[in-house]
Amino acid sequence: MRRLIALFLFIFFSSILVISSSEKGMHWITQGRYARNDAWGADKYRFGDLYGVSYLSDFRIAKDTHLLPLPQKTDTVLRDYDLTILGDSYLYSSFQEHPAYFSRVKMLQFYRWSDSQQHLIFAKSNRKQVLLIECVERNMWDRMNLADARLRLDVQQEKSLPVDKSTKQILIDQLDRFDAGVKKAMYHPTLESNLDFVLFNLGFLGWIKERKADFTWKILGRTNPDVQVSRDGKFLYLEETLNAQKRGSSFRFVGKEDVDLMVHHLQEIESYYLSNGFDEVIFSLIPNPVAVLETEGKASNLAIQKIVEHPQLHVKMVDPSASLKQHALLNFYSSDSHWNLRGAQIWLNDFNQVLSKLP
Amino acid sequence: MVFNSLQFLVFFGIITSAYFLLHPKFRWLLLLLASCYFYMAFVPMYLGILGFTIVIDYFAGIYLERFQGFQKKLFLALSLAANIGVLAMFKYYHFIDQNIVWLSEQLGTHVQLPVLEMILPIGLSFHTFQAMSYTIEVYRGHQKAERNFGIYSLYVMFYPQLVAGPIERPQNLLHQFYEVHSWDWNRVKSGLLQMAAGIFKKVVIADRLALLVDPTYEQLPNQSSGALALAAVFYSFQIYCDFSGYSDVAIGAARVMGFKLMDNFNAPYFAKSLPEFWRRWHISLSTWFKDYVYFSLGGNRVSIPKWYLNIMVVFVLSGIWHGASWNFVIWGALHGLFQVIGLSINRVFPGLAAEVQRQIWAQWAYRLLTFILVTLAWVFFRLKHFTEVKQFFQTLFMGKSDGLPLALNFPEIMLSIGLIFSLCWWEYRQRILHRAHTWPFLIQFSLLAIAIYFLGVFSLKQFIYFQF
Fold first, then answer.
1. Transmembrane ranges (chain B) (predicted)?
2. Residue B435 region, left (φ>0) first, then alpha (ψ -120 to 50), else beta?
3. Which of A293-302, A315-324, B5-14, B78-87 has the least mean pLDDT?
């Protein structure tokens, strides 16, 4: 009997570890759980990603599970561009990877900021090549520079030049690489969050999680440290977008040097991609929801506006801030860090206008 | 891999079940491999440093047994030098360098050690001290040298106590690796309960108190006196629950598999004097210093000034053991000084303490005084720079009433105080989470699990003592 119990425990815990440590296992369980809408389905992102972080019952919303619908009659439109996008979840959570959304676009390739480096191979076509680099405000200070852009999307496959290093430094580098290699082979980098998903991300546990979250919020005045409830109590925001000490915040002081540097980075990125096969490079900086919704009773740093209005900025830019601010409450979910389909459509309209004006 | 993580939960489930499934002959091997895996989760390269000291001490043990006289002393010295050398290299190198630079600059020159980029291996002080206790005990003839290299390695690396103790003695632990431990329900139940109690102390109490303590100490200039007093008291309980919580999980995890590790805490804040506090706090370290340093210096069987000096030496060393920084040295020296002052008062007024302690109210007054002294000393432990310590005490005693709002709201402060009082009551009544019957176990375990989930602060915050 005791051996049977030990055997059961061994099989149970080993299975959990094997599934959580493998990409295939996690893919299988994630697909399975998100396909179901019952007690055994996953609830992490189903009701708003910030609800999935906080589990505050007041913010459990019926999130639209569809992507933006494709335009219907599109075959008569002139399609003389191929579009490559380097973007984040604002785009891939709202759009299918389909060229029909975009004016004048025949072929579409999508690269994500979250992916590791990929080398771009241009499709063999006579069409012009346009590159869209899109990034949300909270990440733009870290991501919008040539080195980071090339880390995700590079057009040059040349080998790196040998660097003159001392023997000691070479030895240290090799040891570090060995160490990182061993660690990667033995421990999955996201094992803890994978285990959390496998063990606890089940619909029927949502009720219990909500009780804890509500108690912590309503009695102790705290939420999960990654999120914050707006002053009016109607929205959940990522804490990093509100905390003026953090780089991605809409309330951090942004000085002239910051803006100058960003403008320099944008132009550097544009020059690099223009000289490496693209005919047009367009940037789009998406404002943090809190900067659009203005629920905090204090002025945001207007970072994107300062960049767009910089006298030395000569790149093509899609800034949806003004459009999103019209009926702003309708353009965002109350408990998601992204826009809703209406917000996505507004951005798409602005972007298509820029596309339509290309030569 | 910290104890308050899901990774540890799964790891513990796999290793414990496999332990009882395996033939007893191979169990030590499973535990050794598991310990390597556990340790490498922090930084794999650390294993090489640990391996170095294991090899040295393994052979030192064998040669210590083989030789007598001068050669025996030589092997002990070599073993201790290797262990202390590793500690000095990885833990104290920068500290020594900083002080050499400062001292040379005072003398109008500039001397600096070569720059070495090193990270302190997790738990280095703990397993180095455990390894040293082995060679010392073999030298003293209290322990036979271990011939099985794997078993010796396991003695140093046994995963429950590898990174933050308890610092075991070879006489207590080594023989247990040869014993056959069968599945004993009572032992499993009490081990699981102790683990759950340890997690409760860590995530419900210590990590909750940290929510107030950390921001308060980080913004010292803007705090009121009341906020600092509250943070100081909370820190006393934070560090206690953090460290004793870790020890409970370590002892409980070992007990589930049939191993008995030494106790590390015994309600230290109920101590009626500083010496008593040190008999109740981090017992495995206090007894280590007592057995291997204090007694070696002559203990109290020497002249009074030498006795006081011995006490000061032990406590300063204990401070340095905690960290390579002057604040730890001062923290240790303060504890030494408190003890010397206490002993001096007892000498001037012999019998006074014994007379007063017969009164209940006096016992509580002594407890309170001891707690206040320990709490004030913790300030030196928590704050790294003298300017901060000075600012802390200036603000604390100046009666400043205005400052930043507290980082926790009123209900949570009340909840925290309630948890502290509950813990104190539990320890004062010497309640033990140990029931032979299944139902009381299930009820206690379920209540703890529910409390951990609903009241826990899940931030995967490292245990404070991991840095040592």
1. 6-22, 29-54, 74-93, 307-324, 330-352, 364-383, 403-426, 438-460
2. beta
3. A293-302
pLDDT for res A1: 77
Higher pLDDT, A74 or A63: A63
CB B424 within 8 A of CB B416: no
Per-residue pLDDT, B262 = 94
Q: What is the secondary structure of B382-406 as a DSSP string?
A: H--SHHHHHHHHHHHHHT----PPP
Residues of B with CB under 8 A from a CB of A: 5-7, 10-11, 13-14, 16-18, 20-21, 37, 40-41, 43-45, 117, 183, 211, 408-409, 411-412, 415, 453-454, 459-460
Burial code of A235-266, b = ≥16 C-beta within 10 A, e = fewer?
bbbbbbbbbeeeebbbbbebeeebbeebbebb
Which distant-in-sequence residues (6+ apart) come within 8 Å of A255 by Cβ?
none
Chain A residues in contact with B6 (beta carbon < 8 A): 192, 195-196, 199
Residue given tokens 């395996």 in the structure block: B22
Q: How far is CA A309 from the centre of its chain?
A: 25
Of A8-17, A134-143, A187-196, B414-423, the range with the lowest mean pLDDT is A187-196
CB contact at 8 A, B63 and B56: no
Euclidean distance between CA atoms B367 and B267, whole angstroms: 12
Verify whether the Cβ–Cβ distance A212 to B45 is below 8 Å.
no
- What is the average pLDDT score of chain B? 89
What is the SS3 assignment for B280-305? HCCHHHHHHHHHHHHCCCCCCCCCHH
Q: Which residue of B has its CA nearest to A210?
A: B454
Give the list of residues 6+ apart from residue B26 with CB closer than 8 angstroms, or none.
Answer: none
**CB B245 within 8 Å of CB B202:** yes
A234-277 tens-digit pLDDT: 999 999 999 999 999 999 999 999 999 999 999 999 998 898 88
- Residue B436 has φ and ψ, to the nearest 5°, of -75, -30
| C-alpha–C-alpha distance, residues B286 and A281, integer Å | 67
Of B184, B166, B119, which Cα lies nearest the Cα of B324? B119
Average pLDDT on B413-439 reads 80
Q: Least CB-CB distance to B17: which of A9, A211, A220?
A: A9
Output the pLDDT for position A117: 64
Domains of chain B by residue range: 6-181, 186-272+357-467
- Tell me, yes or no, if B282 is annotated catalytic: no
Instruction: Provide the b/e sequence for B188-204 (b: ≥16 CB within 10 Å).
Output: bbbbbbbbbbbbbbbbb
| Residues A197 and A30: beta-carbon distance below 8 Å | yes
The pLDDT tens digits for A156-174 are: 654 444 455 666 677 777 7
Query: How far apart are alpha carbons B466 and B150 in whole angstroms?
Result: 25
* Short-list B362, B459, B457, B450, CA closest to B416: B457
- In this structure, the number of other CB atoms found within 10 A of the CB of residue B400 comes to 15
User: B99 near B24, Cβ under 8 Å?
Assistant: no
User: What does the alpha-carbon distance between residue B40 and residue B354 come to, in Å, rounded to a whole number?
Assistant: 51
The H-or-E segment that residue A81 falls in is: strand A81-87
Give the closest of A179, A199, A215 to B45, CB-based: A179
Identify the helix (H) or strand (E) that includes residue B419.
Answer: helix B410-428
Distance CA A183, CA B45 (A): 10
Where are chain A's structural domains?
A: 43-155+203-359
Burial label for B353, CB within 10 Å (0-12, 13-18, 19+), is middle
Percent of chain A with pLDDT over 90: 38
A40-44, B76-80, B243-247: least confidently modelled range: A40-44
Exposure pattern of B366-393 as b/e (b: 16+ CB <10 Å)? bbeebbebbbbbbbbbbbeeeebbebbe
CA nearest A4: which of B112, B83, B183, B34?
A: B183
